[in-house]
Amino acid sequence: MHHTNSRTLFERAERVIPGGVNSPVRAFKSVGGNPIFISRGEGAYLYDVDGNRYIDCIGSWGPLILGHAPEIVTKAIESQLSSGTTYGAPTELEVELAELVCEIMPSIEMLRMVSSGTEATMSAIRVTRGYTGKKLIVKFEGNYHGHADFLLAKAGSGVATLGLPECAGVPEAVTADTITLRYNDAESVLSLFKSHGESIACVIVEPVAGNMGCVVGSTNFLQTLRDCCTQWGAVLIFDEVMSGFRVSLGGAQQLLNITPDMTTLGKIAGGGLPLGIYGGRREIMETVAPLGPVYQAGTLSGNPIAVIAGLNVLQYLKANADTIYPKLAALGDLCAAGLREKAKARNIPVIVNNCGSMVTCFFTSASEVTDYTSAKSCDTAQFGMWFRQMLESGIYWPPSQFEAAFLSVAMTERDIHKIIQSSDESFSRL
Ligand SMILES: *Cc1c(COP(=O)(O)O)cnc(C)c1O
User: Fold this and answer.
1) In a domain, 247, yes or no
2) Do 292 and 186 belong together in one domain?
3) Residue 186 sits in the same domain as residue 297
4) What is the phi/psi pair of residue 45, to 5°?
5) Does a structural domain hold residue 377?
6) Taking CA 105 as the corner, what is the angle to CA 100 and CA 109, rounded to the nearest 5 degrees?
7) Given 118, 193, 270, 308, which is the most exposed site by the fewest CB atoms within 10 A?
8) 146 lines ligand 1 (CB under 6 A)
9) Is 211 in the pocket of ligand 1 (CB under 6 A)?
10) Edge-to-edge, what's the strand order for the sheet holding 351-355?
Protein backbone atom coordinates (compact mmCIF):
# COMPACT_ATOMS: atom_id res chain seq x y z
CA MET A 1 0.00 0.00 0.00
CA HIS A 2 1.33 3.46 -0.89
CA HIS A 3 0.81 6.49 1.33
CA THR A 4 2.77 9.08 -0.64
CA ASN A 5 -0.01 11.64 -0.93
CA SER A 6 -0.98 11.25 2.71
CA ARG A 7 2.61 11.84 3.72
CA THR A 8 2.85 15.01 1.63
CA LEU A 9 -0.41 16.34 3.04
CA PHE A 10 0.68 15.52 6.58
CA GLU A 11 3.87 17.54 6.12
CA ARG A 12 1.79 20.51 4.98
CA ALA A 13 -0.72 20.01 7.78
CA GLU A 14 1.95 19.86 10.49
CA ARG A 15 3.11 23.34 9.57
CA VAL A 16 -0.26 24.99 10.15
CA ILE A 17 -2.25 22.71 12.48
CA PRO A 18 -0.84 21.40 15.81
CA GLY A 19 0.19 17.80 15.15
CA GLY A 20 -1.41 18.11 11.72
CA VAL A 21 -4.84 17.20 13.05
CA ASN A 22 -7.94 18.86 14.43
CA SER A 23 -8.42 16.30 17.21
CA PRO A 24 -5.46 14.55 18.87
CA VAL A 25 -6.24 10.83 18.47
CA ARG A 26 -6.31 11.23 14.66
CA ALA A 27 -2.54 11.78 14.69
CA PHE A 28 -1.55 8.10 15.22
CA LYS A 29 0.85 9.28 17.96
CA SER A 30 0.23 6.26 20.19
CA VAL A 31 0.55 3.69 17.41
CA GLY A 32 3.36 5.17 15.35
CA GLY A 33 3.29 6.04 11.68
CA ASN A 34 1.49 8.92 10.00
CA PRO A 35 -2.23 9.49 9.65
CA ILE A 36 -3.85 8.70 6.34
CA PHE A 37 -5.76 11.52 4.69
CA ILE A 38 -9.26 10.66 3.57
CA SER A 39 -10.77 11.69 0.27
CA ARG A 40 -14.11 9.93 0.40
CA GLY A 41 -16.38 7.66 2.41
CA GLU A 42 -18.99 5.32 1.02
CA GLY A 43 -21.05 2.88 3.07
CA ALA A 44 -18.68 0.72 5.10
CA TYR A 45 -15.59 1.99 3.31
CA LEU A 46 -13.11 4.85 3.44
CA TYR A 47 -10.87 5.87 0.53
CA ASP A 48 -7.64 7.74 1.15
CA VAL A 49 -5.86 10.29 -1.04
CA ASP A 50 -3.61 7.54 -2.43
CA GLY A 51 -6.58 5.55 -3.69
CA ASN A 52 -6.44 2.86 -0.97
CA ARG A 53 -9.69 1.42 0.34
CA TYR A 54 -10.31 0.52 3.98
CA ILE A 55 -13.12 -1.09 5.92
CA ASP A 56 -13.94 1.72 8.32
CA CYS A 57 -14.16 0.49 11.92
CA ILE A 58 -14.14 4.02 13.35
CA GLY A 59 -17.21 5.58 11.81
CA SER A 60 -15.98 9.08 12.71
CA TRP A 61 -15.64 7.85 16.34
CA GLY A 62 -19.28 6.93 16.71
CA PRO A 63 -21.68 9.04 14.68
CA LEU A 64 -21.84 6.95 11.51
CA ILE A 65 -24.07 4.08 12.60
CA LEU A 66 -25.46 3.91 9.04
CA GLY A 67 -22.05 4.11 7.42
CA HIS A 68 -20.80 6.90 5.15
CA ALA A 69 -23.06 9.15 3.11
CA PRO A 70 -26.32 7.23 3.55
CA GLU A 71 -29.00 8.63 1.23
CA ILE A 72 -31.21 9.23 4.22
CA VAL A 73 -28.78 11.89 5.37
CA THR A 74 -27.53 13.30 2.07
CA LYS A 75 -31.07 13.71 0.67
CA ALA A 76 -32.26 15.35 3.88
CA ILE A 77 -29.41 17.84 3.85
CA GLU A 78 -29.96 18.60 0.16
CA SER A 79 -33.66 19.21 0.78
CA GLN A 80 -32.85 21.82 3.43
CA LEU A 81 -29.78 23.41 1.88
CA SER A 82 -31.45 25.79 -0.55
CA SER A 83 -33.67 27.12 2.24
CA GLY A 84 -30.71 28.27 4.28
CA THR A 85 -28.31 26.81 6.80
CA THR A 86 -29.06 28.79 9.96
CA TYR A 87 -31.60 31.35 11.08
CA GLY A 88 -30.88 32.08 14.74
CA ALA A 89 -34.61 31.61 15.25
CA PRO A 90 -36.68 28.53 16.10
CA THR A 91 -37.89 26.02 13.51
CA GLU A 92 -40.42 23.20 13.35
CA LEU A 93 -37.57 20.75 12.69
CA GLU A 94 -36.10 21.41 16.16
CA VAL A 95 -39.45 20.68 17.78
CA GLU A 96 -39.74 17.44 15.83
CA LEU A 97 -36.26 16.32 16.82
CA ALA A 98 -36.83 17.24 20.48
CA GLU A 99 -40.14 15.34 20.53
CA LEU A 100 -38.54 12.30 18.92
CA VAL A 101 -35.63 12.19 21.38
CA CYS A 102 -38.04 12.50 24.34
CA GLU A 103 -40.06 9.64 22.88
CA ILE A 104 -37.03 7.39 22.33
CA MET A 105 -35.58 8.19 25.78
CA PRO A 106 -38.49 8.69 28.17
CA SER A 107 -36.16 9.85 30.97
CA ILE A 108 -35.75 13.04 28.91
CA GLU A 109 -38.78 15.29 29.35
CA MET A 110 -37.13 18.47 28.11
CA LEU A 111 -33.91 19.09 26.26
CA ARG A 112 -31.63 21.71 24.80
CA MET A 113 -29.65 21.35 21.57
CA VAL A 114 -26.01 22.42 21.33
CA SER A 115 -23.25 21.79 18.79
CA SER A 116 -21.02 19.14 20.39
CA GLY A 117 -20.81 16.52 23.10
CA THR A 118 -18.40 18.72 25.04
CA GLU A 119 -20.94 21.51 25.11
CA ALA A 120 -23.65 19.09 26.19
CA THR A 121 -21.78 17.72 29.23
CA MET A 122 -20.40 21.12 30.20
CA SER A 123 -23.87 22.65 30.12
CA ALA A 124 -25.53 19.72 31.87
CA ILE A 125 -23.10 20.05 34.77
CA ARG A 126 -23.74 23.77 35.07
CA VAL A 127 -27.45 22.97 35.24
CA THR A 128 -26.96 20.39 38.02
CA ARG A 129 -25.02 22.94 40.08
CA GLY A 130 -27.66 25.58 39.47
CA TYR A 131 -30.47 23.18 40.28
CA THR A 132 -28.98 21.69 43.45
CA GLY A 133 -27.04 24.71 44.71
CA LYS A 134 -24.16 22.27 45.39
CA LYS A 135 -20.72 22.26 43.85
CA LEU A 136 -19.02 18.83 43.83
CA ILE A 137 -18.87 16.82 40.61
CA VAL A 138 -18.18 13.09 40.69
CA LYS A 139 -16.70 11.36 37.65
CA PHE A 140 -14.85 8.12 36.93
CA GLU A 141 -11.35 7.20 35.81
CA GLY A 142 -11.18 6.31 32.13
CA ASN A 143 -14.47 8.01 31.29
CA TYR A 144 -14.30 10.97 28.91
CA HIS A 145 -16.86 13.72 28.89
CA GLY A 146 -15.37 16.21 26.45
CA HIS A 147 -12.73 18.84 27.11
CA ALA A 148 -14.36 21.33 29.49
CA ASP A 149 -11.77 22.48 32.07
CA PHE A 150 -13.45 21.08 35.17
CA LEU A 151 -13.81 17.64 33.55
CA LEU A 152 -10.11 17.38 32.72
CA ALA A 153 -9.36 16.23 36.26
CA LYS A 154 -7.70 13.17 37.69
CA ALA A 155 -7.95 11.65 41.12
CA GLY A 156 -5.98 13.50 43.79
CA SER A 157 -4.30 11.68 46.65
CA GLY A 158 -6.90 12.41 49.29
CA VAL A 159 -9.78 11.16 47.17
CA ALA A 160 -12.70 13.24 48.30
CA THR A 161 -10.83 16.52 48.57
CA LEU A 162 -8.97 17.95 45.65
CA GLY A 163 -9.13 16.78 42.10
CA LEU A 164 -5.95 17.62 40.21
CA PRO A 165 -5.73 19.04 36.71
CA GLU A 166 -4.95 16.40 34.08
CA CYS A 167 -4.09 18.95 31.44
CA ALA A 168 -1.81 21.98 31.16
CA GLY A 169 -3.76 25.20 31.15
CA VAL A 170 -6.32 24.03 33.68
CA PRO A 171 -5.92 25.81 37.04
CA GLU A 172 -6.16 23.72 40.20
CA ALA A 173 -9.04 25.83 41.43
CA VAL A 174 -11.15 24.68 38.47
CA THR A 175 -10.71 20.95 39.16
CA ALA A 176 -10.72 21.20 42.96
CA ASP A 177 -14.45 20.39 43.07
CA THR A 178 -14.18 17.42 40.70
CA ILE A 179 -13.81 14.04 42.39
CA THR A 180 -12.59 11.10 40.33
CA LEU A 181 -13.40 7.56 41.45
CA ARG A 182 -12.68 4.12 40.05
CA TYR A 183 -15.12 2.89 37.40
CA ASN A 184 -17.29 -0.08 38.37
CA ASP A 185 -16.34 0.40 42.04
CA ALA A 186 -19.62 0.71 43.95
CA GLU A 187 -17.90 0.68 47.35
CA SER A 188 -15.96 3.89 46.73
CA VAL A 189 -19.16 5.60 45.60
CA LEU A 190 -20.95 4.59 48.79
CA SER A 191 -18.16 5.80 51.02
CA LEU A 192 -17.84 9.11 49.15
CA PHE A 193 -21.55 9.80 49.53
CA LYS A 194 -21.34 8.94 53.22
CA SER A 195 -18.62 11.54 53.75
CA HIS A 196 -19.57 14.21 51.19
CA GLY A 197 -23.13 13.43 50.05
CA GLU A 198 -24.47 16.79 51.07
CA SER A 199 -22.13 18.71 48.75
CA ILE A 200 -22.48 16.58 45.62
CA ALA A 201 -24.27 18.29 42.71
CA CYS A 202 -23.97 15.45 40.24
CA VAL A 203 -22.44 12.17 39.24
CA ILE A 204 -21.52 11.92 35.56
CA VAL A 205 -20.77 8.52 34.07
CA GLU A 206 -20.51 6.67 30.77
CA PRO A 207 -22.94 3.80 31.56
CA VAL A 208 -21.27 1.87 28.78
CA ALA A 209 -17.78 3.31 28.61
CA GLY A 210 -16.12 3.67 25.23
CA ASN A 211 -13.30 6.04 26.02
CA MET A 212 -10.95 3.57 27.73
CA GLY A 213 -11.94 0.99 25.16
CA CYS A 214 -15.31 -0.66 25.56
CA VAL A 215 -16.13 -1.42 29.21
CA VAL A 216 -19.70 -2.02 30.29
CA GLY A 217 -20.85 -0.54 33.59
CA SER A 218 -21.99 -3.28 35.97
CA THR A 219 -25.61 -3.24 37.08
CA ASN A 220 -24.54 -3.12 40.72
CA PHE A 221 -22.29 -0.12 40.09
CA LEU A 222 -24.86 1.88 38.11
CA GLN A 223 -27.68 0.99 40.50
CA THR A 224 -25.51 2.21 43.39
CA LEU A 225 -25.06 5.52 41.59
CA ARG A 226 -28.81 5.71 41.07
CA ASP A 227 -29.58 4.95 44.71
CA CYS A 228 -26.97 7.32 46.15
CA CYS A 229 -28.07 10.21 43.93
CA THR A 230 -31.69 9.66 44.89
CA GLN A 231 -30.89 9.41 48.58
CA TRP A 232 -28.66 12.50 48.69
CA GLY A 233 -30.45 14.71 46.17
CA ALA A 234 -27.64 14.66 43.60
CA VAL A 235 -28.31 14.60 39.85
CA LEU A 236 -27.31 11.43 37.98
CA ILE A 237 -26.07 12.24 34.48
CA PHE A 238 -25.63 9.43 31.98
CA ASP A 239 -23.20 10.64 29.37
CA GLU A 240 -24.59 8.78 26.39
CA VAL A 241 -22.82 10.87 23.74
CA MET A 242 -21.31 7.61 22.52
CA SER A 243 -23.74 4.93 23.72
CA GLY A 244 -26.97 6.76 22.88
CA PHE A 245 -28.80 5.24 19.86
CA ARG A 246 -25.77 2.90 19.61
CA VAL A 247 -25.95 0.10 22.20
CA SER A 248 -29.72 0.10 21.78
CA LEU A 249 -32.14 2.63 20.32
CA GLY A 250 -32.80 4.02 23.80
CA GLY A 251 -29.10 3.86 24.71
CA ALA A 252 -27.45 2.26 27.72
CA GLN A 253 -30.25 3.40 30.01
CA GLN A 254 -32.67 1.23 28.05
CA LEU A 255 -30.25 -1.66 27.65
CA LEU A 256 -29.32 -1.76 31.35
CA ASN A 257 -32.72 -0.55 32.59
CA ILE A 258 -31.46 2.21 34.88
CA THR A 259 -32.97 5.69 34.67
CA PRO A 260 -30.76 8.78 34.99
CA ASP A 261 -31.99 12.27 35.87
CA MET A 262 -30.17 13.83 32.95
CA THR A 263 -28.68 12.51 29.71
CA THR A 264 -26.12 13.96 27.34
CA LEU A 265 -26.15 13.00 23.67
CA GLY A 266 -24.10 13.76 20.56
CA LYS A 267 -22.40 11.71 17.84
CA ILE A 268 -25.29 9.69 16.31
CA ALA A 269 -27.78 12.39 17.38
CA GLY A 270 -26.46 14.69 14.65
CA GLY A 271 -26.33 12.06 11.93
CA GLY A 272 -22.71 12.97 11.17
CA LEU A 273 -23.11 16.73 11.66
CA PRO A 274 -22.20 18.76 14.74
CA LEU A 275 -25.04 18.40 17.23
CA GLY A 276 -25.19 17.70 20.93
CA ILE A 277 -28.13 17.46 23.31
CA TYR A 278 -28.56 17.67 27.06
CA GLY A 279 -31.86 16.97 28.71
CA GLY A 280 -33.64 15.23 31.51
CA ARG A 281 -36.33 15.66 34.10
CA ARG A 282 -38.57 18.66 33.47
CA GLU A 283 -38.01 20.11 36.93
CA ILE A 284 -34.25 20.18 36.35
CA MET A 285 -34.40 21.49 32.78
CA GLU A 286 -36.72 24.29 33.84
CA THR A 287 -33.71 25.96 35.47
CA VAL A 288 -32.26 26.67 32.01
CA ALA A 289 -32.52 30.25 30.64
CA PRO A 290 -34.78 31.90 29.62
CA LEU A 291 -37.08 29.84 31.86
CA GLY A 292 -34.65 29.74 34.78
CA PRO A 293 -31.42 31.24 36.09
CA VAL A 294 -28.84 28.92 34.43
CA TYR A 295 -27.44 30.62 31.33
CA GLN A 296 -26.58 28.63 28.23
CA ALA A 297 -26.71 29.70 24.59
CA GLY A 298 -25.36 28.97 21.11
CA THR A 299 -25.29 30.82 17.77
CA LEU A 300 -25.56 27.68 15.64
CA SER A 301 -27.50 25.58 18.16
CA GLY A 302 -30.34 23.72 16.49
CA ASN A 303 -29.28 24.80 13.01
CA PRO A 304 -31.52 23.17 10.40
CA ILE A 305 -28.76 21.25 8.59
CA ALA A 306 -27.56 19.35 11.66
CA VAL A 307 -31.11 18.96 12.92
CA ILE A 308 -32.54 17.53 9.69
CA ALA A 309 -29.64 15.08 9.45
CA GLY A 310 -30.09 13.91 13.03
CA LEU A 311 -33.87 13.80 12.72
CA ASN A 312 -33.75 11.59 9.64
CA VAL A 313 -31.23 9.20 11.15
CA LEU A 314 -33.18 8.85 14.40
CA GLN A 315 -36.45 8.36 12.51
CA TYR A 316 -34.80 5.66 10.44
CA LEU A 317 -33.28 3.95 13.49
CA LYS A 318 -36.64 4.02 15.26
CA ALA A 319 -38.56 2.65 12.27
CA ASN A 320 -36.03 -0.15 11.74
CA ALA A 321 -34.88 -0.80 15.29
CA ASP A 322 -36.12 -4.41 15.16
CA THR A 323 -33.65 -5.29 12.44
CA ILE A 324 -30.83 -2.77 12.98
CA TYR A 325 -29.90 -3.47 16.60
CA PRO A 326 -29.97 -7.27 16.34
CA LYS A 327 -27.84 -6.96 13.18
CA LEU A 328 -25.32 -4.67 14.89
CA ALA A 329 -25.16 -6.98 17.91
CA ALA A 330 -24.60 -9.99 15.67
CA LEU A 331 -21.80 -8.21 13.77
CA GLY A 332 -20.22 -7.08 17.05
CA ASP A 333 -20.40 -10.53 18.61
CA LEU A 334 -19.03 -12.15 15.45
CA CYS A 335 -16.14 -9.70 15.32
CA ALA A 336 -15.33 -10.10 19.03
CA ALA A 337 -15.47 -13.90 18.90
CA GLY A 338 -13.29 -13.94 15.78
CA LEU A 339 -10.62 -11.71 17.30
CA ARG A 340 -10.60 -13.79 20.48
CA GLU A 341 -10.24 -17.06 18.57
CA LYS A 342 -7.48 -15.84 16.25
CA ALA A 343 -5.47 -14.30 19.09
CA LYS A 344 -5.75 -17.47 21.12
CA ALA A 345 -4.59 -19.64 18.21
CA ARG A 346 -1.52 -17.38 17.86
CA ASN A 347 -0.86 -17.32 21.62
CA ILE A 348 -1.38 -13.58 21.93
CA PRO A 349 -3.05 -12.74 25.22
CA VAL A 350 -6.04 -10.44 24.61
CA ILE A 351 -9.34 -9.59 26.21
CA VAL A 352 -12.01 -8.60 23.71
CA ASN A 353 -14.89 -6.57 25.13
CA ASN A 354 -17.93 -5.66 23.10
CA CYS A 355 -21.32 -4.16 23.70
CA GLY A 356 -23.21 -4.67 20.48
CA SER A 357 -21.34 -2.81 17.75
CA MET A 358 -18.71 -1.30 20.08
CA VAL A 359 -15.65 -3.57 20.14
CA THR A 360 -12.22 -3.32 21.80
CA CYS A 361 -9.35 -5.78 21.57
CA PHE A 362 -7.24 -5.19 24.70
CA PHE A 363 -3.69 -6.56 24.41
CA THR A 364 -3.44 -7.69 28.01
CA SER A 365 -2.93 -10.85 30.01
CA ALA A 366 -5.29 -9.56 32.70
CA SER A 367 -8.25 -11.88 33.27
CA GLU A 368 -10.78 -9.15 32.48
CA VAL A 369 -10.95 -5.44 31.70
CA THR A 370 -13.48 -3.69 33.90
CA ASP A 371 -11.86 -0.35 34.76
CA TYR A 372 -9.07 2.03 33.81
CA THR A 373 -6.42 0.14 35.78
CA SER A 374 -7.04 -3.10 33.93
CA ALA A 375 -7.35 -1.24 30.61
CA LYS A 376 -3.98 0.37 31.24
CA SER A 377 -2.33 -3.01 31.78
CA CYS A 378 -2.29 -3.36 27.99
CA ASP A 379 0.83 -3.74 25.89
CA THR A 380 0.31 -0.63 23.79
CA ALA A 381 3.44 -1.24 21.71
CA GLN A 382 2.04 -4.60 20.65
CA PHE A 383 -1.30 -2.99 19.92
CA GLY A 384 0.48 -0.39 17.77
CA MET A 385 2.19 -3.09 15.66
CA TRP A 386 -1.08 -4.94 15.26
CA PHE A 387 -2.86 -1.72 14.30
CA ARG A 388 -0.30 -0.88 11.60
CA GLN A 389 -0.60 -4.35 10.08
CA MET A 390 -4.37 -4.02 10.08
CA LEU A 391 -4.13 -0.68 8.32
CA GLU A 392 -1.81 -2.10 5.67
CA SER A 393 -4.32 -4.85 4.97
CA GLY A 394 -7.16 -2.38 4.53
CA ILE A 395 -8.73 -2.28 7.98
CA TYR A 396 -9.05 1.17 9.53
CA TRP A 397 -9.17 0.23 13.23
CA PRO A 398 -9.05 3.04 15.85
CA PRO A 399 -5.41 4.14 16.23
CA SER A 400 -5.47 3.83 20.02
CA GLN A 401 -5.68 0.94 22.45
CA PHE A 402 -8.14 2.97 24.50
CA GLU A 403 -10.82 3.61 21.89
CA ALA A 404 -13.64 1.35 20.81
CA ALA A 405 -14.18 0.27 17.22
CA PHE A 406 -17.64 1.14 15.90
CA LEU A 407 -19.28 -1.19 13.43
CA SER A 408 -22.03 0.08 11.15
CA VAL A 409 -25.21 -1.09 9.52
CA ALA A 410 -23.46 -0.65 6.16
CA MET A 411 -21.17 -3.58 7.02
CA THR A 412 -21.89 -7.17 6.05
CA GLU A 413 -20.74 -10.44 7.55
CA ARG A 414 -18.23 -10.56 4.72
CA ASP A 415 -16.62 -7.36 5.96
CA ILE A 416 -16.40 -8.81 9.47
CA HIS A 417 -14.79 -11.98 8.15
CA LYS A 418 -12.26 -9.82 6.29
CA ILE A 419 -11.51 -7.99 9.57
CA ILE A 420 -11.04 -11.30 11.38
CA GLN A 421 -8.84 -12.72 8.63
CA SER A 422 -6.67 -9.60 8.63
CA SER A 423 -6.46 -9.71 12.41
CA ASP A 424 -5.13 -13.26 12.13
CA GLU A 425 -2.35 -12.17 9.77
CA SER A 426 -1.59 -9.23 12.04
CA PHE A 427 -1.48 -11.43 15.17
CA SER A 428 0.81 -13.85 13.36
CA ARG A 429 3.40 -11.10 12.79
CA LEU A 430 3.66 -9.96 16.41
C1 LIG B 1 -17.20 12.02 22.19
C2 LIG B 1 -17.66 12.15 23.57
C3 LIG B 1 -17.84 13.39 24.20
C4 LIG B 1 -17.44 14.68 23.55
O5 LIG B 1 -18.16 14.95 22.40
P6 LIG B 1 -17.54 15.96 21.30
O7 LIG B 1 -18.62 16.08 20.30
O8 LIG B 1 -16.29 15.33 20.79
O9 LIG B 1 -17.27 17.25 22.01
C10 LIG B 1 -18.39 13.42 25.46
N11 LIG B 1 -18.73 12.29 26.10
C12 LIG B 1 -18.56 11.08 25.55
C13 LIG B 1 -18.99 9.87 26.30
C14 LIG B 1 -18.00 10.97 24.28
O15 LIG B 1 -17.79 9.76 23.75
Assistant:
1) yes
2) yes
3) yes
4) -115, 150
5) no
6) 80
7) 118
8) yes
9) yes
10) 351-355, 358-362, 405-406
Please indicate whether residue 239 is annotated as part of the active site. yes
pLDDT at 331 over 60: yes
Q: Is 116 in the pocket of ligand 1 (CB under 6 A)?
A: yes
Residue of the nearest CA to atom 11 in ligand 1? Answer: 145
Ligand 1, from 25, 122, 140, 145: best to mutate by most atoms within 8 Å of Cβ? Answer: 145
Domain identity same for 123 and 272 = yes
Same domain, 8 and 144: no
Does residue 184 contact residue 191 with C-beta atoms inside 8 Å?
no
pLDDT-derived band at 154 (thresholds 50, 70, 90) equals: confident
Distance from Cα 294 to the centre of ligand 1, integer Å? 22
| Catalytic residue from among 45, 54, 144, 278 | 144
- What pLDDT score does 165 carry? 87
Q: Would the CA dihedral through 294, 63, 242, 391 be positive or negative?
A: negative
Whether residue 246 has its Cβ less than 6 Å from ligand 1: no
Against a cut of 0.85, is the pTM above it?
A: yes
Same-domain check for residues 327 and 310: no
Question: Percentage of the chain surpassing pLDDT 70?
Answer: 98
Q: Beta-carbon neighbour count of residue 418 at 10 Å?
A: 16
Question: Domain range for residue 7?
Answer: 1-21+45-54
- Do the domain assignments include residue 62? no
Domain count along the chain: 3
